[in-house]
Design brief:
Layout lengths: L10 H16 L4 H10 L3 H16 L2 H19 L9 H10 L4 H20 L27 H16 L5 H13 L3 H5 L6 E2 L4 E7 L2 E6 L2 H8 L24 H10 L8 H13 L4 H8 L4 H5 L2 H24 L1
Antiparallel strand pairs: 1-2, 2-3
Helix pairs in contact: 3-4, 4-6, 5-6, 8-10, 8-12, 12-13
């Protein structure tokens, strides 16, 4: 068993190390085996790969798996990938989280992924039960971006969509996708992967077998049904939002949207803000937050609660009318 390289260790240090190792051997330990085991012990990089291969691929959506791979490659492996799974501590995780504080959303997603990863490490016998080092590491606050289109902005968007349609400035599929997003409040992935077999024109519904929250039925309004009815069906192509190639769907809506929003002077509006705008329109139409949660298929009440401040406007208006009526009577 080698102790070290000549010239790196002095004779005195080598002798002291040899005595220490001899003492371990006398006490029944096998230093050579322990060193070999340490060299072959799984690292955080190994555990990340195993988690994705044996768990995430089978239990998460493909887009989620892609996101996990990106987090591992860009954030986790460069910082803590070489640390042994058995030796990593809460201090290491806290330091990692702090190092990525410049990207709080990504830091929190890394923490979320690693927490699940270390739970699996316990199941796989790589760490003792109850030793998850992510526990008690506090996530960074995430500021939810809220951007809703005003009636004037909706009008501008509608005008630009009609202009693009009339003069063939954008593909009919891209225009149809944007119309459906604003008229249904659906998520981007739900519209982009919509097949004709999922559409129930008679009942005004979309029967989605696989969405963010699982299989579900989306009830859509008459305007959305009419928009669907105007979309051209291509023979042999199952996709509502079809692409250029046979049997293909449109995969890029971001570039058309950037051009369209620029024409409509909506440069700060993201595609997801169309879903927020659907919700704000529902609030302005006096629908309750629980009803809006059902329309948007929110799995948690807290998600819908972000629209509560919008619901205050009609309440304020009602309070103003009631108080004004009482004051008018009292002032006679």
């Amino acid at each position: 068993m080698a102790i070290g390289y000549h010239g790196v260790l002095t004779t005195e240090k080598a002798r002291a190390e040899a005595i220490r190792i001899l003492g371990e051997v006398v006490s029944g330990k096998d230093p050579a085996a322990e060193r070999s085991e340490a060299r072959h012990a799984p690292t955080i990089a190994d555990l990340c790969q195993r988690t994705i291969q044996e768990y995430s691929i089978h239990h998460c959506k493909p887009s989620t798996v892609v996101g996990y791979r990106a987090l591992v490659k860009s954030y986790i492996n460069p910082r803590i990938g070489r640390i042994s799974v058995a030796e990593i501590t809460r201090t290491d995780i806290a330091r990692f989280h702090h190092d990525v504080r410049y990207a709080p959303y990504q830091a929190n997603r890394c923490l979320q992924f690693m927490s699940k990863m270390f739970n699996l490490a316990e199941i796989w016998g790589l760490r003792p039960d109850g030793s998850n080092p992510c526990r008690h590491v506090k996530k960074y606050p995430e500021k939810k971006r809220e951007r809703f289109l005003s009636p004037e902005e909706l009008k501008r968007l509608g005008d630009v969509l009609r202009e693009c349609e009339d003069y063939h400035l954008e593909s009919s599929s891209a225009i149809a996708a944007l119309r459906l997003l604003i008229l249904t409040g659906c998520r981007l992935g739900e519209i982009m992967t919509l097949k004709w077999e999922y559409v129930d024109f008679e009942k005004g519904a979309l029967h989605l077998p696989d969405s963010k929250t699982g299989a579900k039925t989306v009830h859509i309004g008459r305007a959305a049904v009419e928009a669907l009815g105007r979309i051209k069906r291509l023979p042999g192509n199952p996709w509502v939002i079809y692409g250029k190639l046979p049997r293909a769907r449109l995969t890029d809506l971001q570039h058309p949207w950037r051009r369209i929003r620029k024409r409509a002077k909506l440069d700060d509006v993201r595609i997801h803000d169309l879903r927020h705008s659907f919700a704000s329109s529902a609030v302005n139409t006096r629908y309750s937050l629980p009803m809006i949660g059902k329309l948007l298929d929110h799995s948690q009440v807290q998600t819908t609660a972000r629209y509560a401040h919008l619901a205050a406007d009609p309440v304020r208006e009602a309070a103003d009318r009631v108080s004004r009526g009482i004051a008018d009577v009292m002032d006679g």
